[in-house]
Amino acid sequence: MKKIAKGNIQRWTSACLAVFMLLMLSACGGQEDPKNLIPEKPDEERVVNLFSPMEKTDPNAENVARTASDLTVMMAEEALGVTMVYRTYTAESYQDRTYDEVILDRARNNMDDLYLLNSDTLLTLGAEGALMDLSGLDSAKNLREIIWTANTVDGKLIAIPQEVVAYGLFVNKDMFDQYQLSLPETPEEFLKCCQTFKENGVETPIGANRWWLETFVFAQAYADLYNGENTEAEIAALNSGEARYSDYMRSGFEFLQTLIDRGYIDAEKALVSEALEAEREDFLAGKIPIVMAYWGAANTETAYGKTDFEMQVIGFPSSRGRMPVITMTGFGVGANAEHAEDAMRVMDIIVSDKALQVYAETNRVISPSKNVKVDCVPALTPLNDRIEEGVYVLGSNATMKVEQWGNTCLIVRELLGGATVDECMAAFDALQAAALD
């Protein structure tokens, strides 16, 4: 059932009282025929349509992430007197069409007002001019610089997330201690750790799936780009074609190929495994020492939030030490949305410091606001420390003409399926050539 805004109830009550008083006065004065009086109509309900992967939470369901978002939506509904209508993607409804494919179609046809966008669709729609510029919102003034960097297209801030999603290596610290291994900093140290595990009977030291192995690539490809002195100049060179994405990516793909060749990753299994599907059980059982996942997976018992061993979450190996990889989804407003004005007001509330504090405290995540800080669980401290130092790489960056996260994921799958590193680099060159046309 749709929620009815309090303001509408009050207006309807006032209207009824007004009509009642007029009828009474007319009856007493005898000057007007009551049947000619037309009751005042209540205001039409104001709605904002949101398209996202998930429905509004069932009050009895334990879904922390969805509940956190709902709490901020409720703040907007109450403050503005609007009703948020959730329009939801389900694989069953759209059959073979992915969420990204569906959202591109809906946004291009102005079917909704607000959209929860992945990094690849964000870049595509932003380049097409299909999203509003959010830089003028009051709440935008409080955003971390990383949000502006990752979500700005053609000078416009086109999306704002409610959390910054950081990826790291989830490691079984007890297994590292058992073999007197220090947690690795560099690719070379990481390979030595995997070799030791392999020599001591751990058949496959790294649990992997078909979605997240690109995190190793990003950590090595862009460690210097994002943590050096020439970030803007290097990205400009990539966008102009003066520099090649393949030159950055090669070291990461060669590293993944080494992990596969030495049996540290089961490529065949990873290629057909969904996130958490294949690796979670073995990691929790202490059969494998290393998996990769996102920040929130350490906060919930449904992923890795409750282990029988000491778990730590660290950055990926790189030339600059342990490197967090950051990506993000974001809420965007359709440029030609039917309820664009109300949608912009909703955005300003759900990404305000007040709302983001509620969201961050509920989910225990990194906030996009530079003013909102939340204590993380102990396992996440090593990863969080690096991020607070300003050390990380971006896995999604709307200022790059070639979309990063989705494309790299797909090309990594080609490697898992048997493609050579050179063939993978040729795929990046082709993407860059297409972007420059």
Give an overview of the whole structure.
It is a single chain. This protein has 437 residues and is an alpha/beta fold. The protein is 45% helix and 11% strand. It has helices at residues 6-29, 64-80, 91-94, 99-108, 119-127, 145-151, 173-178, 187-199, 214-221, 223-227, 231-240, 245-261, 267-271, 280-284, 340-350, 353-363, 381-388, 405-416, 421-436; strands at 47-52, 83-88, 114-117, 152-153, 156-157, 165-172, 206-207, 290-294, 311-314, 325-327, 330-333, 393-394. The strands form 3 sheets. Strands 6, 7, 8, 9, 10 and 12 form a 6-stranded mixed sheet that branches. A 4-stranded mixed sheet has the order 2-1-3-11, with helices on both faces. It has a two-stranded antiparallel ribbon with strand order 4-5. Strand 4 and strand 5 (156-157) form a beta hairpin. Helix 2 (64-80) runs antiparallel to helix 16. It starts with 5 loop residues before the first helix and ends with a helix.
Radius of gyration: 26 Å
Shape, please? Answer: globular
The chain-level mean pLDDT equals: 86
Distance between the termini: 49 Å
Helix content: 40-55%
Oligomer: single chain
What keywords describe this structure?
437 residues; 6-stranded mixed beta sheet; 45% helix; disordered N terminus; alpha/beta; globular
Question: What topology does this entry show?
Answer:
Elements: H1 6-29, E1 47-52, H2 64-80, E2 83-88, H3 91-94, H4 99-108, E3 114-117, H5 119-127, H6 145-151, E4 152-153, E5 156-157, E6 165-172, H7 173-178, H8 187-199, E7 206-207, H9 214-221, H10 223-227, H11 231-240, H12 245-261, H13 267-271, H14 280-284, E8 290-294, E9 311-314, E10 325-327, E11 330-333, H15 340-350, H16 353-363, H17 381-388, E12 393-394, H18 405-416, H19 421-436
Helix pairs in contact: 2-15, 2-16, 4-5, 9-12, 12-19, 18-19
